[in-house]
Design goal:
The complex is a heterodimer of chains A (447) and B (434).
Chain A lengths: L1 E8 L3 E7 L5 E8 L4 H28 L6 H31 L9 H22 L11 H20 L3 H16 L7 H15 L1 H19 L3 E9 L15 H12 L5 E5 L4 E6 L5 E6 L8 H11 L3 H9 L12 H13 L4 H23 L6 E4 L6 H15 L4 E2 L7 H14 L2 H9 L1
Parallel strand pairs in A: 1-4, 5-8, 8-9
Antiparallel strand pairs in A: 1-2, 2-3, 5-6, 6-7
Helix pairs in contact in A: 1-2, 1-7, 2-3, 2-5, 2-6, 3-4, 4-5, 6-7, 8-14, 9-11, 10-12, 10-13, 11-12, 12-13, 14-15
Chain B lengths: L12 H18 L1 H4 L2 E5 L6 H6 L2 E4 L1 H10 L3 H10 L8 H11 L15 E6 L4 H13 L3 E5 L12 H23 L5 H23 L14 H4 L1 H4 L6 H20 L4 E2 L2 E2 L5 E6 L7 H9 L3 E6 L20 H11 L6 H14 L4 E7 L3 H4 L2 H12 L3 E6 L9 H25 L1
Parallel strand pairs in B: 1-2, 1-3, 3-4, 7-8, 7-9, 9-10
Antiparallel strand pairs in B: 5-6
Helix pairs in contact in B: 1-12, 4-6, 5-6, 8-14, 9-12, 13-18, 15-17
């Protein structure tokens, strides 16, 4: 089947959306951008393809009535199982890579002990996988680096303590290896992983076993569908790095405008807060950009600001929003400078203010900055769509809603749970239009 | 305006002529003491070159030195030197580059030190930082300073009143001319001034012809990046000279030839390409990354067909002003009063709207300069107004004049690409709607 893929290479994450000829999104994928956009693009694209396989499998299973009970539940199980397979595969790659780095004068005489320690660490990591991917289990992040990295550190620390090996050597091996592993193009063999994932589920469920044949047929069908990369459009900061010609590249302003329009056709104003950019975009009734403003010269008040604050507080970036939401009295933070905000944070905490109040103040500072960019772009016209990583942060959303109403009155505010894919979605639609002679398409919509 | 970084792919006769003129002026400046010449420091907007020539005074322009240093990648350390001396980060970077240049021996592009000026001629228009700048220079050089106060056209109307004109003329007669006589020891001769002004008007006619050639499709010139070279002689030490007349005569001939051949502008990398976007630009260019900045335009087929920066040293096209040998002092007064930054916001907005229409531009781009309030204040409002009146899309980017720390190439390229694609998208949808 013909597939149209949009890839949004952000400063923090790289996103891909795969669309079919009927403008239906079949799959989306996300990965951390690393310092290697080629790999990030390849990984996110593969993730979107995996997503597409699941969508196709879902359709096929439903069509065949193959699953007794809930197809969704079955596919959720299958996906978790698939993710675990993927994780174990990467873990194995990491282990092999680590082993190769245990060499040179720094390791002289300790090669064997370090090797043994690594074996134990990785065994434990692998043993931890099933509960991590069990039903209902929550993972802090979906990125391999985040999941494996955090656990490696803490297990390695214990291992170093008990074996009196220097921890920094284990860390050194890990640091070198994770970069190498991350920058390797994604492994193939999707069919094999699907197969193994399915085997796991069948092992766990006698009921499933009975349906094995019934399920395998449509699944095989879904996996066998040829996904033709008909047209790929890239956007975002890394777009010039994408291995395709200039006409396959669109600015993220256009992509975000169009993406928001597809999600919410009545959108007129879009705010996107990404890793290092805050964009305010005005679009017309066809998703065509009328005007835009971005932060210049300074990235204060962007997503990275929250990352920095999270580091300063030694918590995960995902924990910021929930913590700030507990605030009862928002601390006034004057500085929008990221570095100064760190200083202000410590100062306020030292003065005895509550963490949640200070955090709420920092979230407000970000949104105030965004409001200024919005007003420069021409203000807010109903409907207003908020996208980007920061749109997933409930404390930021709360401040935004408040400030939008104060400044522009009652406005419909759209926030899609998948808003992080807005740019990639727009890019995918540009790909689809380019392949289908875009002009006719726009004309159709205009009429 | 610069000898070192001029386009070097195609050397037209006019380019060689300009190079020779600029080099000659620097030699005259650095050898002034031996040649027995007096030096004046003065500014580009509202400069009185024809008058200075009457006294045989050589013209040194600190702004030009600053941008020269920026184009030769030397302004960064100079600005840092000035900051070490106590000048704040927010001060105009032309000023700081100049202060830093002094601290490093005031070396001219010919490698020789620039002698101290004999007089500071502060005929400023629209920029109040100029006052403070020369206050600093006066402290440094301890030389006579003569100030020509040019009233701002602040009433929102597009006219120079007789009162304003008389006020400037009075100062010319009572302050400026007597001081220059004293410094140079030369008696003022109004007929000499008339001769100079005659040359100015001739060169101005040809300059306007060159700027208006951008109404052709494709435009044979880039009126911003290329434009800064074309305005070089007339904005600096050459207005009123035979050399300037000759330069513009050559330039006009070359551009007429380009039009005949249907050629686009010349860029540092040769001929332009296909003209895809016609833009009007408001605001000065960035000098530290001038070529890189320009490339972001021409590699995407964007040509600037009109710019307001090419009017800072005199507006000749918009309301047809020419220096007038029959009314010498009056026309000097009108010249100063009419410089671009001395005009009020409604007037600047109208000028932009007219440019958008007369040059059939696709959009207006504002390059807002971090450290230049006289240009930047009100730009966003002007942009909105021009968008509303013309229905054409605008965009806003931010850089700086000569401080390399404020030029972020990835960001600017990102904005520009987005803008060009936005124009394209609107054009396509407009064509469909039509």
């Amino acid at each position: 089947m013909k597939c149209y893929i949009g890839i949004d290479l952000g400063s923090t994450t790289t996103k891909a959306v795969l669309m079919d000829a009927d403008k239906q999104v079949l799959g989306q994928g996300i990965t951390n951008s690393r310092s290697n956009y080629d790999t990030a693009a390849a990984v996110s694209k593969q993730e979107a393809i995996i997503g597409t396989r699941f969508t196709l499998a879902h359709r096929a299973l439903k069509e065949h009535g193959a699953v007794n009970g809930s197809t969704d539940e079955f596919l959720n199980d299958l996906e978790r199982s698939f993710r675990m397979e993927q994780y174990l595969e990467q873990l194995e790659d990491l282990e092999n890579t680590c082993e190769n780095y245990v060499t040179g004068p720094r390791f002289a005489g300790m090669e064997k002990d370090i090797g043994t320690a690594l074996q134990e660490i990785f065994k434990q990591l692998a043993d931890e996988a099933p509960p991590m991917f069990a039903r209902g289990a929550e993972r802090k992040s979906e990125f391999f680096r985040d999941i494996a990295g955090g656990r490696f550190m803490s297990i390695a620390e214990d291992a170093a303590d008990s074996s009196s090996l220097p921890f920094d050597l284990l860390l050194n091996v890990y640091d070198k290896s994770i970069i190498e592993v991350e920058n390797r193009p994604p492994a193939g063999d999707l069919a094999g992983k699907f197969g193994r994932a399915l085997d796991h589920i069948i092992e766990q469920s006698s009921e499933m076993e009975l349906q094995h044949e019934k399920i395998m047929e449509p699944l095989k069908e879904a996996i066998a569908v040829e996904l033709e990369e008909t047209y790929v459009v890239g956007t975002g900061y890394g777009r010039v790095r994408l291995p395709f010609p200039k006409e396959h590249i669109r600015s993220e302003i256009l992509c975000h405008g169009l993406g928001a329009h597809i999600m919410y056709p009545n959108t007129r104003t879009v705010l996107d807060i990404g890793g290092q950019d805050t964009k305010a975009i005005q679009v017309d009734g066809r998703g065509i950009v009328e005007n835009f403003q971005m932060n210049d010269r300074c990235a204060a008040g962007c997503g990275r600001y929250l990352g920095y604050i999270a580091d300063e507080m030694n918590i995960g970036v995902h924990e910021l929003g929930p913590l700030a939401s507990k605030s009862t009295k928002v601390t006034k933070i004057n500085s929008t400078c990221t570095v100064f905000a760190g200083a202000e944070l410590r100062d306020r905490l030292a003065l005895g203010e509550k963490r949640e109040d200070v955090l709420a103040g920092l979230h407000r500072a970000i949104i105030l900055r965004a409001m200024s960019i919005i007003s420069r772009s021409g203000g807010i016209t109903d409907q207003f769509t908020f996208t980007g990583g920061v749109a997933n942060n409930n404390a930021a959303v709360k401040e935004l809603k408040k400030l939008v109403e104060e400044n522009y009155g009652k406005v419909t505010i759209n926030i899609d749970p998948d808003s992080i894919y807005t740019g990639a979605l727009g890019a995918a639609e540009f790909a689809r239009r380019a392949a289908m002679e875009g002009d006719i398409e726009i004309q159709g919509e205009a009429a | 305006m610069n000898t070192e970084t001029k386009p070097d792919v195609v050397k037209d006769a006019s380019m060689l002529k300009q190079k020779e003129m600029i080099a000659g002026n620097f030699d005259k400046l650095t050898d002034a003491k031996e040649l027995g010449l007096k030096i004046s420091s003065t500014f580009v907007p509202g400069n009185l070159n024809e008058l200075l020539m009457c006294f045989g005074i050589v013209n040194n322009l600190p702004e030009i030195n600053a941008l020269n240093n920026a184009m030769r990648k030397q302004s960064g350390p100079m600005i840092q030197d000035a900051e070490k001396m106590g000048h704040s980060e927010d001060v105009c970077t032309y000023v700081k580059a100049d202060i830093g240049m002094m601290s490093r021996g005031n070396i001219a592009p010919n490698g020789k030190p620039m002698p101290d000026p004999d007089v500071l001629l502060l005929s400023y228009t629209g920029c109040y930082t100029f006052l403070k700048w020369f206050e600093l220079l006066r402290e440094q050089y301890k030389c006579p300073t003569v100030m020509l106060h040019v009233p701002y056209q602040g009433d929102g109307k597009a006219e120079i009143t007789q009162n304003m004109r008389d006020y400037v003329i009075k100062q010319l007669k009572e302050e400026v001319i007597p001081t220059l006589e004293q410094v140079s020891g030369v008696k003022f001769d109004i007929d000499r001034l008339r001769e100079n002004l005659k040359n100015s008007a001739k060169a101005e006619d040809d300059l306007v012809w060159v700027l208006e050639s951008a109404k052709n499709k494709p435009s044979p010139i880039d009126a911003y990046f290329g434009g800064v070279y074309y305005i070089g002689p007339i904005f600096t030490a050459f207005r009123g000279t035979e050399d300037a007349v000759e330069y513009y005569r050559l330039l006009k001939g070359e551009i007429a030839e380009r039009i005949k051949q249907g050629l686009g502008p010349v860029t540092p990398e040769g001929e332009v390409f296909e003209e895809k976007y016609r833009l009007v630009v408001e605001g000065p260019p960035n000098w530290t990354n001038f070529r890189e900045f320009w490339k972001m335009f021409y590699e995407d087929g964007a040509v600037v067909v009109a710019s307001t920066y090419s009017k800072v040293g005199g507006v000749y096209d918009y309301d047809g002003f020419r220096h007038d040998p029959d009314h010498p002092l009056e026309s000097l007064a009108d010249y100063c009063l009419g410089c671009y930054t001395n005009r009020n916001l409604p007037e600047r907005t109208q000028m932009l709207v007219d440019y958008m229409e007369d040059y059939q531009a696709d959009g207006l781009l504002v390059n807002s300069i971090k450290s230049c309030n006289s240009f930047s204040a009100g730009q966003l409002l002007m942009l909105r107004e021009v968008e509303a009146r013309t229905g054409k899309p605008g965009a806003f980017i931010e850089t700086d004049l000569v401080d390399p720390r404020y030029f972020s190439p990835a960001n600017i390229k990102n904005r520009l690409e987005s803008y060009f694609q936005m124009i394209e998208q609107k054009r396509q949808s407009g064509a469909v709607a039509a």
